[in-house]
Every structure is written in structure tokens, then in C-alpha cells.
Amino acid sequence: MRKKILAANWKMNLSAIEAQEWLTQFKSGVSDRHPVEFRLYAPHVFIQQLSADEEMHVGAQNVHPADFGAFTGEIAIPQVKSVGAQSVLIGHSERRTYFQESDSFLKEKVDACCAHLFPFIFCCGEDLQTREMGNHLSFIQKQLETAIFQLNPQEVFLMTIAYEPIWAIGTGLTATTNQINEVHAFIRSILTKEFGENGANVSILYGGSVNEGNAQGIFSCPDVDGGLIGGASLNVFDFLELASSF
Ligand code: PEP
Fold first, then answer.
1. pLDDT digit string, tens, across residues 146-200
2. Could you tell me the pLDDT band of residue 35, with boundaries at 50, 70 and 90?
3. Which of 27, 65, 79, 226 is a Cys-bridge partner for 5, taking CB atoms 3.0 to 4.6 Å apart?
4. Residue nearest ligand 1's atom 7 by CA
5. Atom of ligand 1 nearest to the CA of 233
6. 116 counts as catalytic
7. Taking a C-beta distance cutoff of 8 angstroms, is the pair 205, 169 a contact?
């Protein structure tokens, strides 16, 4: 069963006080009429305080594949789990670009998530040059093949995919609904071919400058099961507004 998910990715923003205020305002603004699962991918230092609210799904923005060790500045899955994280983002384009995370390193992270039965959102998506050359589908296929094709049918349940064209992240440019439909249908066909019914039921989110003006068009695409939201998630009212677009 494909779940509808609306996930906030705060990136490296907000203070502890602002984070708490966001959550308080979110709790008073959210209602049962929002037919989605909300998730909050917060900076690691806020995970414990935010996950004290048991109704909120709080996740980490990144983890290291090792369980422990000499990796100064990194954080392990058992550590984020121990403070209440319920899932993690793997392969966000900012990790790939600024921290040189390769598909094979991301595979290690995926394997670590599976070893810990820790749900993850695997992010994929092409850069502008790849899109302009018309190679976006094969590019995405390779990202998926390298990092997630090793999953067994049970592990597929841990996975959500986020399609995030790099050229649309934080740029104000949004993919058209035709472009989004094409890629989401393609990803679903790959997952179905590789993992059968379990693959067909994986939720596929779109991310890339989603805002209140374009959300309704994007969320009504047949293979879009929700969104991963950066900029528009920092203001809680903007974020809640997006939930009304489903
Ligand atoms: C993101 O960070 O995953 C993202 C989609 O950012 P934005 O919504 O700001 O483009």
C-alpha cells in the first residue's frame, strides 16, 4: 500500500527554540483532515527534543554506514535511533555534491539501514546537464541499480524514494508535471521489475522547490506519493498549507 508522505527537510537551519516553536505551531495547526504522514528531518542536535513528541515522525538527515568508530563529526544509526529518530535521508543531492558521496558509498548506508531495520528515504535525481542531454532516465536508473538493487523483498518495505532533480532544489525552478510524471512512472517501473509487488508499493516523493503555488499540480500526478520539502518547510504555516494540496 503506497503511503502519502509530506516530509520537511530543514537542512542546516533553525535554532533549538525555533525548532520547538515550529513543532508547537505544527501541532496546533495540523488536523485529521490532512491525509498524509508527516515527517520532520531535523538537524541531529534537535532529534531528541523533537521526538519527545511521540506523534511526530522525526528523522535524521544523514548517517554514517559504520555502527561506531573513528569518524570524527559523523553519526551512526544506533546513535540517532537511541535519541528517537525513526528514519533517515540517504543520498540527498547536497550530500552527493558537497560531501562527494558516491553511489557505492550510499549503498553502504542503505545496507546499514537494512541491517538495523531502519527506514530510509533514498534520494535520486539528475543534474541540469544530464537533463539537457536527455540522459536523465539512464542516470537515475544507475543511481538506483548501484545503491538499492541488492535489497531483498522484505527490506524493500524500509524504503521510500524521493525524486529530486538537482536543478530544481532550492533554485525556484520546478520540474513540469510532465517531467515529474515521466520520471516517477519510470522509477516505479524499475522498482516493480526488480522487486515485484513490494516494489510497486514503494512510495515515491517529489522534491524540488515545491511551494503552495505548484503543490496541487505535483501532488495530483498519479505516481507522486508526496513531497520532500526544503525551503517551504521552514515556515510551519507554509508547510501545513502544502498538506492541504493533497
Ligand atoms: C530538499 O532539500 O530536499 C528540497 C527539495 O529543497 P527545496 O524544496 O528548497 O527545493
1. 999 999 989 999 999 999 999 999 888 889 999 999 999 999 999 999 999 999 9
2. confident
3. 226
4. 230
5. 8
6. no
7. no
